[in-house]
Amino acid sequence: MGSFTFFLFFVCILFVTSYAQLTENFYEQTCPRLPNIVRREVKKAIETDIRAGAKLIRFHFHDCFVQGCDGSVLLEDPPGFESELNGLGNLGIQGLEIVDAIKAAVERECPGVVSCADILAQASKDSVDVQGGPSWRVLYGRRDSRTANKTGADELPSPFEDLPPLQKKFRDVGLNSTDLVALSGAHTFGRSRCLFFSGRFSNFSGSGQPDPTLDPTYRQELERACTGPETRVNFDPTTPDTFDKNYYTNLLANKGLLQSDQVLFSTQGAETVEIVRRMASRQETFFRQFRLSMIKMGNIKPLTGNQGEIRRNCRRVNDLGGETGHDVM
Prior knowledge:
Layout: H1 3-20, H2 34-48, H3 52-64, H4 96-109, H5 116-130, H6 150-154, H7 163-171, H8 177-184, E1 191-193, H9 216-225, E2 232-234, H10 246-252, H11 259-266, H12 271-281, H13 283-298
Antiparallel strand pairs: 1-2
């Protein structure tokens, strides 16, 4: 084999390996009923807590944006590191008990086989399609990290940010502006605490005035609803518990709840403006792109092969023997 031919062969092997590390059939032999188990538990959680789906997809998002999709967001103070749960971007994050219940159900049938990172990916898909959104084939094969990165969690995309820093944070993990707009569409369901958007009501950015991109009537409704900073308000005032394209029609009407939502449409000359218009025009356009962007996000720097571990308890790293989770606080 000539040197140039060998080089091409080597490049092809690298290319195939990088895209084949996560596969649809990873658990086909070891845990074939995984999708059914997770979906059952997600539906059960949503029946008792309508916010469960939004909580689960937030965990997957915050996991993948900090050192890749490795379950690190779920760790409670692993050795030598401070938990990502203590990071600024995760303050108030909820739903660990839902992840625990899903993991326990999976462990009963397939002990020591399925990673917490893969459970987050599957649960996010189920959270979306159970509440009316698109479905997609989840790729598996992620392993769980034995470390966390609080600094990374401090730097997660913020609800107070303008468009350029948001775009940079997405670019830094290999996601573009279309991915930013599509993935932000997850705010079509769920709730936000008033402390994350009440700064838009008056003296916005030191102007002495409300945020001009917030519809005045909607602002008054929000002010009445916000009886305190911890009060939770629907992201979508129209269909708050359904996964649909109304997130984008709300942006067109200056009814994006967070500053980081509305800037996608209200930043003059930004490429995101037309993307928002496209998503708002047809629900299937949003659904199709959301599927693609979720799969792309789920492939951010996964641990595979012999890297990391398969945690028995999503909140704790395994003992060195790899058999049981232990409390590391």
